[in-house]
Write a structure and sequence with these properties.
Layout (H helix, E strand, L loop, with lengths): L3 H10 L1 H10 L2 H9 L3 H10 L2 H10 L2 H7 L8 H6 L3 H8 L4 H9 L3 H10 L2 H11 L6 H4 L6 E2 L5 H11 L8 E5 L5 E6 H6 L6 H4 L7 E2 L4 H11 L3 E5 L5 E6 H19 L12 H27 L2 H6 L2 H29 L8 H31 L2 H31 L4 H27 L1 H4 L1
Parallel strand pairs: 1-2, 4-5
Antiparallel strand pairs: 2-3, 5-6
Length: 456
């Protein structure tokens, strides 16, 4: 048998060589190769293949194996991979998938095809998936799966263990046993370790944890991720407004959420659409970037307009043009630093309106201090460059003013957007940059105009 490490080295070394290997290999050789790989490795391969080879790989996988691979395909590539799988085959594959994964798959299919697959599922499973599809995808209901193990508080631990053994083939990754009353309300939880360590004759009610943290079905996915982070959960029950147990969320889904939210915030700060990917066509990238760049152009014109008010001053002291980019650039950098820290603090729940004043004061002190240090340095360099001490004073004061205002903008703008219920990462970057450009040019050129007599 060819070792798995050989295939991984071949894939990583040069994918073109790997594609050649596929063309020269028989179906049996490829099956042997696939048996040696983890489903995540197969998902990586499928994403990079063309449509024909994708279809061939997926056709050679067993239905159970394909059910493990499909959920690991990146969302961006999933529609292309699904197109390579015949509908009859896909229908058989989803029978082996968890309900949350089935929901994700069906949401990527055309409505008619998704309905046909739903109709082919057993009634119970079909109803569960339809219910999951009714929840917004960025909520706890959109993340949860209905597969779980729940018992009555009157059951013994021995009976609970027997129930787990019965359901394990359909309910994977059993971490906790959920306890529900006759109305289906969540009243407790028994960790798997407790089932193993306690006497099998004890009742569930004797050992269960009664203070169970759960997520409401309409809770935002960012809040759900914060619960996992704060309490180090591996799984989390989901309930409705009355407390009825609906499903559970596993940590692997939350890892995807954290990655998605982090990427989304990073993209928004840079003014990039979250749907853009590195292997997009040039036309698609242009279409996604042009609207935001057009908005940036408007803000750049605003900064240029401020400069136009001081054309006379610049004509008389041409050296001002040399230092203008430094004032604006340093303010932009300082504002971006504050903005990044504040936006991250908001996302992690570290910054709220209750401690905003203290954080704002800290940022203002930092901005002022940095401005004094760097402004003093540039004042000295300007004096050595032109031999005019007043030019150094004007430059130094402008940098102090702009870096102070940059800290103010970088801190307050995300908070204002949060207060307005707008994602702080959505427009903060361009607003802060425009603010520091306008403020920097106005302070520098305004002071230069005020002290023009000493500069000429």
């Amino acid at each position: 048998m060819i070792p798995r490490s050989f295939f991984l080295q071949l894939i990583d070394k040069e994918f073109g060589e790997f594609e050649e290997f596929l063309k020269q290999s028989t179906d049996d050789e490829i099956r042997q190769f696939l048996d040696e790989l983890h489903p995540a490795d197969i998902a990586d391969i499928v994403e990079r293949l063309d449509e024909q080879d994708r279809g061939r790989i997926m056709a050679l996988l067993s239905e159970e194996r394909a059910a493990e691979v499909l959920p690991l395909i990146e969302e961006y590539h999933k529609p292309e991979v699904l197109d390579a799988i015949p509908e009859t085959t896909l229908t058989k594959i989803v029978l082996h998938m968890d309900s949350d994964d089935v929901t994700d798959i069906l949401e990527d299919l055309p409505k008619e095809e998704a309905e046909e697959i739903l109709d082919s599922l057993p009634q119970k499973e079909s109803d569960e998936v339809r219910q999951l599809m009714s929840y917004p995808p960025d909520t706890a209901g959109g993340l949860m799966q209905t597969e779980l193990v729940a018992v009555s508080p009157d059951a013994t631990l021995g009976q609970a263990i027997h129930l787990i053994r019965e359901k394990y083939s359909k309910v994977g990754d059993i971490i906790n046993l959920y306890v529900v009353n006759e109305q289906g309300l969540l009243i407790g939880m028994v960790p798997l370790r407790t089932l193993i360590l306690e006497d099998a004759g004890k009742k569930v009610s004797e050992v269960m944890e009664r203070d169970v943290i759960s997520a409401l079905v309409d809770m935002d996915q960012e809040q759900v991720a914060e619960l996992f982070r704060k309490y180090d959960f591996i799984s989390l029950p989901v309930v409705d407004q009355q407390g009825k147990l609906l499903g559970r969320i596993l940590v692997d889904d939350i890892v995807d959420v954290i990655q998605e939210e982090a990427s989304e915030d990073m993209y928004r700060l840079a003014g990039v659409d979250k749907e853009e990917h590195v292997d997009d066509t040039p036309l698609r990238s242009i279409r996604l970037r042009l609207p935001w760049l057009s908005f940036n152009l408007v803000t750049a014109i605003a900064a240029a307009t401020v400069v136009s008010f001081f054309q006379g001053t610049i004509q008389k002291v041409v050296a001002l043009a040399v230092f203008m980019p430094i004032v604006a650039g340093m303010g932009g950098n300082a504002g971006t630093q504050s903005l990044t820290v504040i936006t991250r603090g908001i996302a992690l729940g570290e910054l709220t309106f209750s401690n905003a004043k203290r954080v704002l004061l800290k940022e203002l002190i930092g901005g002022l201090t940095n401005g004094i240090v760097l402004g003093g340095l540039m004042a000295l360099l300007a004096y050595l460059y032109k031999g005019n001490p007043m030019l150094g004073v004007v430059l130094g004061l402008a940098m102090i003013c702009n870096m102070f205002m940059a800290a103010l903008a970088g801190t307050s703008i995300p908070l204002i957007l949060k207060w307005a219920r707008v994602d702080p990462a959505l427009a903060s970057g361009v607003i802060v940059t425009t603010f520091t450009d306008v403020t920097g040019f106005f302070c520098f050129l305004g002071l230069a105009t005020l002290f023009l007599h000493y500069l000429t």
